[in-house]
Amino acid sequence: MSAASEQPYDLKGLKCPLPVLKTRKRLASMQSGAMLVVETTDPLAVIDIAHLCQEDGHTLVSSEKTPNGHRFEIIKA
């Protein structure tokens, strides 16, 4: 599945724990193997999103710093 066609899930401006809670809820509604691209500005999301993926078995394909925050590519377990 191409990440380029994926519309980013914009969680910019939200503070911990909202980005990880909304990411978990969005992943729950997706099919296994689907990719979710998440964009955040919360510095704690780097830790929280990685922990969510490890905890729930999702694959964190990439985690990259952006000019305004962070961007994550996650493949649902």
In CATH's first tier, which class applies? Alpha Beta
By secondary-structure content and strand pairing, the structural class works out as alpha+beta
Level of helix content?
25-40%
**What best-fitting shape do the alpha-carbon axes yield?**
globular
InterPro entries: TusA-like, TusA-like_sf
Organism: Rhizobium oryziradicis
Protein name: Response regulator SirA
Family: Belongs to the sulfur carrier protein TusA family.
Overview of this protein structure:
With 77 residues, the chain is an alpha+beta fold. The chain has one domain (3-75): Translation Initiation Factor IF3 (2-Layer Sandwich), CATH 3.30.110. Helix content is 30%, strand content 31%. Strands 1-2-4-3 form a four-stranded mixed β-sheet, covered by helices on one side. The chain starts with 8 loop residues before the first strand and ends with a strand. The model has no long low-confidence stretch (mean pLDDT 93).
Short description:
This protein is an alpha+beta fold.
Q: What labels would you give this structure?
A:
Response regulator SirA, Translation Initiation Factor IF3, 31% strand, globular, 77 residues, TusA-like, 4 strands, TusA-like_sf, 4-stranded mixed beta sheet, alpha+beta
